[in-house]
Amino acid sequence: MNKLIKLLLTTILTLGLIACGDDDTPVGVEGVVHANYVKHGDVKLYGVKNDHSKQYITVTSTDDKGHYSMLASAITYGYQAYIIEATGGEYKDEATAENRVISVENPLESVVYLNAGEVQQVAVTPATDIVVKTLRKDDNFTKAAKTTVANSVVKNLLGALADGIALDLFTTMPVDLTDAEAVSHATDNQKVYASLMSGLSALQKVTGKSLTEVSNELAAELDTQN
Description:
By secondary structure, the chain is of the alpha+beta class. The chain is 35% helix and 23% strand.
């Protein structure tokens, strides 16, 4: 097991791991941007073209809880996959209590498959970013590839803790563990996810690496075969 992943697992164990649109206007995709809550950031939607380049579609912003939503009327349907990219905004690093910003040069990304008439809930986190980086490295944005890589991310990052946990990195919305009200209404998987994000934050502090550096390294060394 990679030393970085071992350190992350140890950190998680130490931590004690276990906006919608107008009511009359259909939402096409919504969710949360979380590296802890990313407040007032930009969230852009891109279509993935056949050559796997990105086509800009629309943009929205997060609220003070990191939530975002995009109206169905603003979405161009028909792409093989869609990338959700978050930049800007501010979040509190749980390990250092410092305020940080997601840079334009190093966005957080997630991936989703959209169809007209459906509403998708999608989280955008450092974990989904690892999945997207791996899909891009493998030049494969199919649903099957996403599922395989996402399952591998959960297994590699949580280790033995992943046994018996069906954590969907994309449809589970992590919460701020310091937000007592949110935690009181959260599911076990939301708390697990939030603890994983806290672990990644602590890992940055311990290693002295940036969020981007940690994400890049984990994506490069991810074992998707086991």
